[in-house]
Amino acid sequence: MSMVNTRGTYARILFVDFSSAFNTIIPEILCSKLTQLTVPAPTCQWITDFLTDRRQQVRLGNITSSIRKISTGAPQGCVLSPLLFSLYTNDCTSGDPSVKLLKFADDTTVIGLIRDGDESAYRQEVEQLALWCGQNNLELNKLKTVEMTVDFRRKALGSETAHSIPVNV
């Protein structure tokens, strides 16, 4: 952030919230990604089996729902779920050195260092993130995804959109 003090430079920071992040993992896509990371086939199969055909039932007071099989997502509260989600999103990276993607489990932050008002690299990376989400069964939560500008130039900036999704600035 010390670069923000450089003349003509400011930062755009997008705090990304995914809707039901852990619930969106598709086991087959995760297995493909794990294979690309050279995870052994038996481990991939074990993870796929772990995530596929899980049984779920809800009880409210004395009423119990019927059992449903779930074949997407990772179990809430399971110690493996954050790790599996991190592996699922491992290939979501920035292709531009002026834009950084920081990830921790289901939290993602895009930081763009803007020089001389040229936001094109940052905007392109945000668009790429939105496209990547569409290809990986993830949805940006419009209400919780927000953008912050760190700008010591004292010039107000307007609201923006990310892949046709309004983002609060």
UniProtKB/TrEMBL annotation:
User: PROSITE patterns per the record?
Assistant: RT_POL (PS50878)
Pfam families linked to this entry: RVT_1 (PF00078)
Domain Reverse transcriptase as annotated: residue spans: 1-161
Instruction: Please identify the protein, giving its name as recorded.
Output: Reverse transcriptase domain-containing protein
Q: Which organism is it from?
A: Synaphobranchus kaupii
